[in-house]
Amino acid sequence: MKISSGKALDAQGRQIAASADRGQSEPDGRRGTGGAAAYLDGADEIIHQPLRLRIMAVLNSLPTHEPLDFTQLRASVQATDGNLGAHLATLERAGYVEIHKDFLGKRPRTRVSISPAGRVAFARHVAYLRGVIDQPSRSP
């Protein structure tokens, strides 16, 4: 691994994810480990995390501007309230999702929708993943 202008590079000159390089914790407490998934050749660092990828996939499957209830999203991605909330906060800070809070009668309700920027970012990340999958295998 080389360091070029503050960025870690592998032997082929590809940038390695900052969180993997520095061992920063994800919202679920796990640490970045590097490896193939850590390369940033078009990967979106925010979406690449497995739970956030599932969240974005579920929200992207909805019609434009249609929100999904927090409880339905939680069940779809099989996450705890706290874990889902932390990942949604990360996606909201990036501008990828919009969180709508209101009341249904006297009960608070939280709904989540993917933003236009989130749809674009998700499409780019999916294209990146397809490129990785379709890339011919190389012999060591």
Keywords:
single chain; alpha+beta; Arc Repressor Mutant, subunit A; three-stranded antiparallel beta sheet; 6 helices; 5 strands; 43% helix; elongated
Topology:
Elements: E1 2-4, E2 7-9, H1 18-22, H2 45-48, H3 50-60, E3 68-69, H4 70-77, H5 81-93, E4 97-104, E5 107-114, H6 116-134
Antiparallel strand pairs: 1-2, 3-5, 4-5
Written description of the protein model:
The chain is α+β, with helices and mostly antiparallel strands. It has 2 domains: 1-41, no CATH class; 43-140, Arc Repressor Mutant, subunit A, CATH 1.10.10.10. Helices cover 43% and strands 17% of the residues. It is built from 6 helices and 5 strands, in the order ββαααβααββα. The chain has helices at 18-22, 45-48, 50-60, 70-77, 81-93, 116-134, and strands spanning 2-4, 7-9, 68-69, 97-104, 107-114. Strands 3-5-4 form a 3-stranded antiparallel beta sheet. Strands 1-2 form a two-stranded antiparallel ribbon. The longest helix is centred in the last third of the chain and has 19 residues, at 116-134. The two termini are 17 Å apart.
CATH architectural group of the largest domain: Orthogonal Bundle
Which term fits the overall shape?
A: elongated
Taken in chain order, the helices and strands follow as EEHHHEHHEEH
Radius of gyration: 17 Å
Identify low-pLDDT runs. Answer: 1-40
Estimate what percentage of residues fall within beta strands. 15-25%
**Secondary structure: helix percent:** 40-55%
Spatial strand order of the main sheet:
3-5-4
State mean pLDDT (0 to 100 scale): 79
Task: Give the number of domains.
Answer: 2
How far apart lie the N and C ends?
A: 17 Å
